[in-house]
Amino acid sequence: MSIFKQAYLELAHFILNALEKLDMAQIELFIKTILDIHLSSKKIIVVGVGRSGLVGRAFAMRLRHLGARSFVLGETITPSVEEGDLLVAISGSGTTQIVIDAAEAAKKMNAKVSAITSYPDSPLGRLADVVVYVPGRTKLANSHNYFARQILGLHEPLSPLGTLFEDTAMVVLDAVVAELMKRLGLEENDLAKRHANIEMP
What we know:
Elements: H1 2-18, H2 24-39, E1 43-48, H3 51-65, E2 69-72, E3 86-90, H4 97-108, E4 112-117, H5 123-127, E5 130-133, H6 139-152, H7 163-184, H8 188-192
Parallel strand pairs: 1-2, 1-3, 3-4, 4-5
């Protein structure tokens, strides 16, 4: 169980230390953008691939619980993107082609794009109207840093591939939801009313 405890602590310490690296002005702009979209009854569509996509789905679900018109790109019931909508694009590297394609398509429709990424100067970051920098060791960093870590004698991290980005992004977005709850004057009971009441086995 020693590896379990080491990994747990590595993740917890990284997420806690990441708070000091977050740009609160970026997060404030992101929150205000979501509020503006929500209050104008426009749509919020979330996109991500792989584990980032799972983080996005969780965020879209919470936005729906807040009363927003949120959807996940790729689902059969997701409507088309229209002018004034918001695309929340999640990619640690900022180079995930499917996410970039979605952002480019959204911009063509005069929708806004918010990027959640570890690389603000990436193709996705450059496309976005709002960029939220989330620290993390992404899959991209693995190949770039492997030999440097070997030369310096550093141990391989216990959080493989993009885990640090994905876990940190999840916490950041959950904290955004908490702030949105406060500003909208909602409580847990209000969210519970919109929670699914038919559960699949």
